[in-house]
Every structure is written in C-alpha cells, then in structure tokens.
Specification:
disordered C terminus; 2 strands; mainly alpha; 79% helix
Length: 346
Amino acid sequence: MNALAGFSIWAQRNRWIWAAIGVLLLWLVLSVVTNRFSLSSLSGVILSASFLTVVGIGQMFVVTTGRGNIDLSVASVITLSAFVALLTVKGQDANLAIGVVAAILLGLAVGALNSLLVVGLGIPAIIATLATGYVLATATLLSNKALPGFAVSPALKELATGRISGVPIMAIIAVIGVTASSLVLRRTVFGQLLSAVGQNRAAARLAGIRNGPVIASAFIISSVLASLDGLLLGAYIGGAFLEMGQPYLLQSIAAVVLGGTLIFGGSATALGTLFASILLILIVTTMQIVGLPPGAQDIVQGIVVIFVLALAGRQALARRASADLADAGKNPTERTDVQAVQARPK
C-alpha cells in the first residue's frame, strides 16, 4: 500500500507517465493481436508522431497560459506554410534558406496577430484564433491558385523523411524540441513566469509580472512551431493540399492534455506531449487496422478528446477545491469573517 501511495504521489508530479503507459499497453496489444508490428513499424509510428509533437509543443505553451486558452489557427498555419514553402523554395536547395525564413516570418506574423486579438483587444483565444484561421484559409486558396506545381527541395525532403542509423531525423528533431521545451519550462525565468501567469493572473500581476507579454510569447511560439511543422510536413508528403493541417487541430490539443498538461494552465509537461502524440498515432493506426472508415475515425478521436478534456477538467476542479480548503484552513479568521458577512441579515 505504501508503494502504491508513493507511486501515486510520484505520478502526480510526473503526469507524462500515464501517456507512456498507454503507449506501452496499446503497443503490446497490437503486437499480440496482429503479426505486423515490429521495431520498423514502431519507427514509422514515431515518425508520424514527430510532426504532431512539434505542433503539440507550441499548443502546450498556449494552454499553459491558462483560462482555457488554445490555438485553433495551427491547422491553417501548417497548410499555408506548406504552400509558402513550395512557392519560395521551388524545389531547389539554394532557396531553402528563403523558405525557412518565410516560414518563420509567417509564424511570427500569425502569432503577433493572435496576440493582438487576445491580449490587446481582449478577445477570447478560441474565437480570436478561429477567426485568424479563416483568414489564413483564404490566403491558402490564393496560394493554391498561384502554385505552378509540386517540387520539393532534396535537402528538405531528406530532413523530413531521412534516417540516421535507422532513427528518423524528424524523431530526433522532435526529441530536441521536447528537451529544449522542458529546459525552458523548468530552468528559465520565462518558464516560471508562464506557470505563474497560468496559475493565477491576478496574483502574477500583483507580483509585478506583466501578463500580456508572457501570453503573447506563447502564441508566437505556437505559430512559429506550427509554421515550421508545415514546412517539414509538406516535404514529407511531397507537396501541399488544402486542409492538410486539419488533423493536427484536435490532435494537438489532445496530445497536450493527454500528456499531462493542465487544461486550466499553470503546469505543463513536454515529455508527456511526446508520449501522448505517439499514443494518438497508435490509436489512429489501430482504427485503420480494424478498417474503420475516415468518418468513424474522426468520431472516435472526438470522443477521446472529449473524454480527456472532461477528465482533466474534473481533476483541475478537484485540485482547486483542495487548494481552497487548504487556504481556508490556513486562514480560519478570514474564513469566519467571510461567513459572518454572508450570514449577516440584509
């Protein structure tokens, strides 16, 4: 019983473990039920999950800012970035630097726009980023008309599909991104500010923290990573098409929350985002093996997202209630005064 209690306490601090356990269990089930799973097939799953991890890390920073903030423009950013890469790189390695700069500038512009809408104008993040996504969708249609053909830079193609000693290069990029994000969250001032703002904006403001720049930085990080992800994803599939980023909208949110990042903000885990991305790709792979049609697959993924969000919401409310009780216990006089005021006849 003591060991179980100790593991429970440890798991609360390392919430990524549940996604990791889910990956292990689902992989074992698939290996037993089918004879088609091996280390090579796992490598393919990890490759697909790497693209989701990159955009999921950016989504994680936005969710960490609290108040239910999510970035719904990532799907449109991914798609538009793939088209911009084709238009700027034109299949030549000599133009690769121009394509990378264009992707970064696109991410910075979209992130700045989202920040202006959310921080400057006070529009809820869901509405603001959804509106931005519609604007980007129009720009994507215009880019599609201007696209002369599909030609991918060989160097970019190698980066997106190549392997080093059997390990996908994209997986290495994803691990580097997860490691860097973990260091930012745990070892830097920005990570501490981000957690403080996500936990309690009023308290952070009283502590002298400028909430606006911190929240704006999170949206910019999300857009830049989504744009770079679109650049690599376009090279991976060998072109670009409308709605190519759409699957990453719900999946990026699910990967963040399923990985252990609190939906109400204040605490994030980049490692959990990585494991949850692998788990979600395994779920999709399982549905494809079963033979579910695409529509049914979307329904199952939607149910998974709803279940995870509902569970995360209940856990957050439970933590908040426990914190309120703890605060009341620490300040019995204040609690009595509040109760007296509420009981006073009007």
